[in-house]
Specification:
It is built from six helices and twelve strands. It is an alpha/beta fold. Bound molecules: cytidine-5'-triphosphate.
Length: 205
């Protein structure tokens, strides 16, 4: 099957030297890409800025911002059988990024932010009948409730839910997988490589 997987953070430019980003390491998305390739699938990995080696025989496309990630995902989504959005995409970007380096001024600075596209929600709207769409939910509160809300709202087939303290930037993670039929699978504190393998086996079963 053809897999499209996203990984890592995005960077939203404030000016030529500054940006807004998050703590995502990209490890989970890269582990999923490696696991899918090892299981015999064709994999395109759309990656935000991370310093991880590209898994063998995976086609990697680097992007920086949420807008670039959206363009790369939409371009490759049409042919994908399975899409996994593991990237931590910024929900907001500076509304007026500067083309010259900003100079400090007396007093405070207000930064106006505007919404980025919710890529996963767009994919949920355009999803074809036999395409599998999988999202992630990293939460600090109400993990199950928030994850199930995203599963419904974004029209997903599966959602992988984890606590921010367990999975952001770490080598291992604890995950709960939910599908739209109400099934629930729990994976406790597992190395991301093994977790990726288990997650794919569960989803493809
Ligand atoms: N996602 C996306 N595009 C965005 C933001 C998020 O495709 N602009 C995807 C992520 O890759 C992840 C899922 O949506 O698979 C959940 O992201 P999250 O930011 O937790 O969800 P939101 O719906 O933005 O909810 P909230 O920020 O309110 O928690």
């Amino acid at each position: 099957m053809k897999f499209l997987i996203t990984a890592g953070p995005t960077r939203e430019k404030i000016d030529p030297v500054r940006f807004i980003t998050n703590y995502s390491s990209g490890k989970m998305g890269y582990a999923l890409a490696a696991a899918a390739q090892k299981a015999g699938h064709q994999v395109i990995l759309i990656s935000g800025p991370v310093v991880l080696p590209c898994p063998d025989d995976v086609e990697r496309i680097f992007v920086e911002s949420a807008a670039e990630m959206a363009a790369a995902v939409h371009k490759n989504a049409v042919n994908a059988d399975v899409i996994i959005m593991a990237a931590a995409v910024a929900d907001y970007r500076p509304a007026h990024p500067e083309t010259s380096k900003m100079k400090k001024m007396p007093g405070d600075l207000m930064l106006q932010l505007e919404r980025t596209e919710d890529i996963l929600a767009s994919l949920g709207k355009s999803k074809t009948g036999n395409q599998l769409l999988i999202g992630f939910a990293a939460e600090t509160d109400d993990l199950e409730k928030n994850a199930l809300g995203k599963l419904q709202r974004k029209n997903l087939d599966w959602i992988a839910a984890n606590w921010v303290k367990d999975g952001f930037g770490t080598a291992s993670n604890s995950l709960i997988l939910f599908n739209r039929n109400g099934d629930k699978f729990v994976f406790e504190n597992t190395e991301k490589e093994l977790l990726a393998k288990r997650m794919l086996e569960t989803i493809l079963k």
